[in-house]
Automatic annotation (TrEMBL):
The keyword Transmembrane helix applies. This is SCNNG protein. Pfam families: ASC. Its main location: membrane. It is found in: Apical cell membrane. It comes from Sterrhoptilus dennistouni.
Length: 641
């Protein structure tokens, strides 16, 4: 039936007939004009216009979908009483040098010998180079673990400053600075070599642009190794107390003292003190802007207690942060200059970003597969440092000293972990090159607070007030200080709000579902005079009906193949003239709808059958019978004529 009946609509036997039926009956005008237009030129014109309209619709709808997940930024400014942030203050020198001498005496001695041998000078002596034989007689465990080398013009040959022997440099060479500056002899640079303890041939040479950088980096490696073996309680005693660091304190015009500061121990900066930490459940606030209503402290730097090889600058470092944030003083801290008054004005900003699918940020960090080692609210820096520390423990078997200690791990030292320095440098190299995977795992926080700082510096104390101020401050220190204060040992710090304007930056969805549907409808109506009904019609015809026709044809082919296979197995080949393959006798069409009266008249006749002839009429049936039993009198006369 499907081959002979002129079926139209969704029951069309072929896709071409379905498309023709759709073009004649659809509500979109362009498709209908393609079919009913006369002339090839006009039909071609309508095809081009219709396809162009479809292309424009697809382009505009794609733009709408791409912009659906975009966000608009709004800035709100509020004027209100603001909470004062936490202010963490650290001395640049982490530990008192006089208290650390018993731990660092051997390291300092070897460092001085290295300076004397390479540069030919020592404390209180003339510039005469020390012979290598004299140095070898003393012995040195530090140079056995990390030998200092003098490399000649980037060649693969280096001289060991400890033994005086020349060695061939194997492995990689890493230049820690972008430009190379001569350090002593011409064309000579200094560096140190790290080797795998399990494979002495696997080594890496780290060179520096200056001997100062090389000596200081070499010193820091041994320094961290020594500090990792000292208990935390002992290190807190070796560092500065609140009475040592703080001389005077004022906040919001009122006096404050060490009770308003909370101590926490930083691995690289020793004892640090946080003002307004909120640990007691109270967060101070200020209702007036200006330097008179902020935090004012005078710090005692005590430059005489500085380690000459560990730090090369004097002063303090501060960081302004939220009470729930960890103070990364080593990364984003602001240095405070001694013998000066540093004023830091603040502007407070709260930011809020939209999470997925608008941006790749995290709300609380719970979806990040990295353990938070800092016990503070999530941030990108916390994630990166925690990720590196975990990789350090997994790869090297111990934890890096500058970061918090994971549960069940211990800090690295080359007595228990002789390979940790080489492992640390290799791991850090991968981290910087983003090969460790931390940058891919860690995400920005969706909400955060920020204090924009403006710093200004003035000379303090002034020349005319220096004498009496230093006398009074020395008297205030009382028995805790046995000498007169020097202005280079002091630093004046002021932290305050420049104004009480709180800026709130937030992201809002640029589009909603209602706006998206409205834009879709506008595009469809503009280019195709189409509505939602047309869209449903397109889905029905191009997807449901087309798929139904394709599946029906495949099913019929499968049944035909199966029938032919069965007939072939019985030894009877199908003939082209078999009645079973013709018209209404075709079994393939049994599952089709029965023909209607009109369509049945159009069925083809069976082959070898005589044409049907119309029988002669039965004239007796043509006799008209009246509906009346008797004839009317006035019609009798007409009937006789």
């Amino acid at each position: 039936l499907k081959r002979t009946l002129p079926v139209r609509g969704p029951q069309a036997p072929t896709l071409s007939e379905l498309m023709r039926w759709y073009c004649l009956n659809t509500n979109t005008h362009g498709c209908r004009r393609i079919v009913v237009s006369r002339g090839r030129l006009r039909r071609l014109l309508w095809i081009v216009l219709t396809l162009s309209a479809v292309g424009l619709i697809l382009w505009q709808c794609a733009e709408l979908l791409m912009n659906y997940y975009s966000a608009s930024v709004s800035v709100t400014v509020q004027f209100q009483k603001l909470p004062f942030p936490a202010v963490t203050i650290c001395n640049i020198n982490p530990y008192k040098y006089s208290a650390m001498k018993e731990y660092l005496s051997e390291l300092d001695k070897e460092t001085k010998k290295a300076l004397e041998t390479f540069y030919g000078f020592s404390e209180g002596k003339s510039k005469v180079r020390r012979s290598v034989d004299d140095w070898n007689s003393t012995g040195s465990d530090f140079f056995q673990h990390i030998p200092l080398l003098k490399v000649e013009d980037f060649s693969r040959t280096a001289t060991d400053l400890h033994t005086g022997q020349k060695r061939k440099i194997e492995g990689s060479v890493f230049h820690k600075d972008s430009s190379i500056v001569n350090s002593g002899d011409s064309n000579d640079i200094i560096g140190f070599q790290l080797c795998d303890a399990n494979n002495s041939s696997d080594c890496a040479l780290y060179t520096f642009s200056s001997g100062v950088n090389a000596i200081q980096e070499w010193y820091k490696l041994h320094y961290m190794n020594i500090m990792a073996q000292i208990p935390l309680e002992t290190k807190e005693k070796l560092s500065y107390s609140a009475d040592d660091l703080l001389l005077t304190c004022f906040f919001d015009g009122l006096s404050c003292d060490k009770r308003h500061f909370t101590r926490f121990h930083h691995p690289l900066h020793g004892n640090c003190y946080t003002f307004n930490s909120g640990d007691n459940g109270t967060i101070l606030s200020t209702s007036t802007g200006g330097s008179e209503y902020g935090l004012q402290v005078v710090l005692y730097i005590d430059e005489a207690e500085y380690n000459p090889f560990l730090v090369t600058s004097s002063g303090a470092k501060i960081i302004v942060h939220d009470q729930n944030e960890y103070p990364f003083i080593e990364d984003i801290g602001t240095e405070i200059e001694p013998a000066a008054a540093t004023s830091i004005g603040m502007h407070f900003t709260r930011s809020r970003k939209l999470s997925k699918p608008y941006s790749d940020c995290t709300e609380t960090g719970a979806d990040i597969p990295v353990e938070n080692l800092y016990n503070k609210s999530y941030s990108l820096q916390i994630c990166l440092h925690s990720c590196f520390q975990k990789a350090m423990v997994d790869s090297c078997g111990c934890a890096q000293y500058a970061q918090p200690l994971p549960a069940g791990a211990e800090y690295c030292n080359y007595k228990k972990n002789p390979n940790w320095m080489y492992c640390y440098y290799r791991l850090h190299e991968k981290f910087v090159k983003e090969q460790l995977g931390c940058q891919q795992i860690c995400k920005d926080a969706c909400s955060f607070k920020e204090w924009a700082l403006t710093t200004s510096i003035a000379q303090w104390p002034s020349i005319v007030s220096e004498d009496w101020m230093l006398r009074v401050l020395s008297w205030d220190k009382g028995q805790k200080l046995n000498k007169k204060l020097n202005k280079t040992d002091l630093a004046n710090l002021m932290v305050f709000y420049k104004d009480l304007n709180e800026r709130f930056i937030s992201e809002n969805p640029a589009n909603t579902l209602v706006i998206l549907l409205s834009n879709f409808g506008g595009q469809l109506g503009l280019w195709m005079s189409c509505s939602v009904v047309c869209v449903i019609e397109i889905v029905e015809v191009f997807f449901i009906d087309s798929l139904s026709i394709v599946l029906r044809r495949q099913w019929q082919k499968a049944k035909k193949w199966w029938r032919n296979r069965q007939q072939g197995g019985l030894g009877k080949a199908p003939q082209a003239g078999d009645p079973e393959r013709q018209g209404h006798d075709n079994p393939v069409c049994i599952d089709e709808d029965l023909p209607t009266f009109t369509t049945a008249l159009r069925l083809p006749l069976p082959q070898n059958s005589p044409l049907p002839r119309t029988p002669p009429p039965n004239y007796s049936t043509l006799h008209l019978e009246t509906a009346f039993t008797e004839q009317l009198p006035d019609t009798l006369e007409l009937d006789q004529h």
